[in-house]
Give the backbone structure.
Amino acid sequence: MENTVAAQPAPLSDVELASLGDGELAYIREMSTEEARSFFPQLKIPEGIEIFAVHGADGTPLALTDTRFAAIASVKEQNLELVSVH
Protein backbone atom coordinates (compact mmCIF):
# COMPACT_ATOMS: atom_id res chain seq x y z
CA MET A 1 0.00 0.00 0.00
CA GLU A 2 1.36 3.37 -0.99
CA ASN A 3 1.17 6.37 1.32
CA THR A 4 -0.07 9.44 -0.48
CA VAL A 5 -0.39 12.88 0.93
CA ALA A 6 -2.96 15.20 -0.52
CA ALA A 7 -1.55 18.49 -1.67
CA GLN A 8 -2.40 21.27 0.75
CA PRO A 9 -3.48 24.58 -0.74
CA ALA A 10 -1.16 27.48 -0.07
CA PRO A 11 -2.27 29.70 2.80
CA LEU A 12 -4.11 32.86 1.80
CA SER A 13 -2.28 36.15 2.03
CA ASP A 14 -3.80 38.95 4.13
CA VAL A 15 -4.95 40.65 0.91
CA GLU A 16 -6.54 37.47 -0.45
CA LEU A 17 -8.27 36.78 2.86
CA ALA A 18 -9.60 40.35 3.04
CA SER A 19 -11.05 40.09 -0.47
CA LEU A 20 -13.16 37.03 0.32
CA GLY A 21 -16.77 38.09 0.31
CA ASP A 22 -15.92 41.57 -0.93
CA GLY A 23 -19.11 43.24 -2.10
CA GLU A 24 -21.19 40.37 -0.68
CA LEU A 25 -20.62 40.21 3.07
CA ALA A 26 -20.78 42.75 5.89
CA TYR A 27 -20.48 42.80 9.64
CA ILE A 28 -21.57 45.26 12.31
CA ARG A 29 -19.36 46.50 15.10
CA GLU A 30 -20.08 48.93 17.91
CA MET A 31 -17.38 51.57 18.18
CA SER A 32 -16.48 54.58 20.26
CA THR A 33 -16.95 58.11 19.00
CA GLU A 34 -13.14 58.43 18.78
CA GLU A 35 -12.92 55.38 16.49
CA ALA A 36 -15.79 56.69 14.38
CA ARG A 37 -14.04 60.05 13.99
CA SER A 38 -10.88 58.29 12.80
CA PHE A 39 -12.83 56.60 9.99
CA PHE A 40 -15.01 59.60 9.18
CA PRO A 41 -13.11 62.75 10.27
CA GLN A 42 -15.52 65.04 8.42
CA LEU A 43 -18.43 64.05 10.69
CA LYS A 44 -19.25 66.00 13.82
CA ILE A 45 -20.10 63.21 16.26
CA PRO A 46 -21.15 64.13 19.80
CA GLU A 47 -19.42 62.37 22.69
CA GLY A 48 -21.10 59.56 24.56
CA ILE A 49 -23.51 58.20 21.95
CA GLU A 50 -23.65 54.60 20.79
CA ILE A 51 -22.29 54.12 17.29
CA PHE A 52 -22.67 51.06 15.13
CA ALA A 53 -20.50 50.71 12.05
CA VAL A 54 -21.25 48.53 9.04
CA HIS A 55 -18.01 47.13 7.61
CA GLY A 56 -17.38 45.32 4.34
CA ALA A 57 -15.66 41.93 4.33
CA ASP A 58 -12.27 43.63 4.03
CA GLY A 59 -12.94 45.87 7.06
CA THR A 60 -13.77 49.00 5.09
CA PRO A 61 -16.37 51.06 6.99
CA LEU A 62 -19.50 51.45 4.85
CA ALA A 63 -21.93 53.23 7.18
CA LEU A 64 -22.35 54.64 10.67
CA THR A 65 -25.61 54.60 12.59
CA ASP A 66 -26.80 55.20 16.12
CA THR A 67 -28.74 51.92 16.45
CA ARG A 68 -28.04 48.28 15.65
CA PHE A 69 -31.45 48.12 13.93
CA ALA A 70 -30.44 50.89 11.51
CA ALA A 71 -27.11 49.16 10.86
CA ILE A 72 -28.93 45.93 9.95
CA ALA A 73 -31.25 47.90 7.66
CA SER A 74 -28.20 49.44 5.97
CA VAL A 75 -26.75 45.98 5.30
CA LYS A 76 -30.03 44.88 3.72
CA GLU A 77 -30.32 48.07 1.64
CA GLN A 78 -26.86 47.41 0.21
CA ASN A 79 -27.84 43.81 -0.66
CA LEU A 80 -25.12 42.40 1.56
CA GLU A 81 -25.22 39.30 3.71
CA LEU A 82 -24.72 39.98 7.42
CA VAL A 83 -22.13 37.72 9.04
CA SER A 84 -21.03 37.29 12.62
CA VAL A 85 -17.38 37.99 13.37
CA HIS A 86 -15.95 36.84 16.70
